[in-house]
Amino acid sequence: MRLLDSECLNKEQWAAAEIKLPEFDREAMKAATKERPQWVHFGAGNIFRAFPAALQQKLLNEGAEKTGIIVAEGYDYEIIKKAYRPQDDLSLLVTLKANGTIEKTVIGSLAESLTVDRQDEADWSRLKDIFASSALQMVSFTITEKGYSITSADGSFRPDVEADFAAGPDKADSYIGKLAALCYWRYTHGGTPLSLVSMDNCSHNGDKLFAAVDAYARAWTERGLADKGFLAYIENPATVAFPWSMIDKITPRPDDSVKKMLEDCGFTDTESIVTSKNTYVAPFVNAEEAEYLVIEDAFPNGRPALEKAGVMFTTRDTVERVERMKVCTCLNPLHTTLAVYGCLLGYTKISEEMKDEDLVKMVEIIGYKEGLPVVTDPGILSPKKFIDESFRYVCPTRLCLILHRELPVTRRRSCPSVLERLSKNIWQALCWM
Question: In this structure, are 288 and 400 located in the same domain?
Answer without folding.
Answer: no
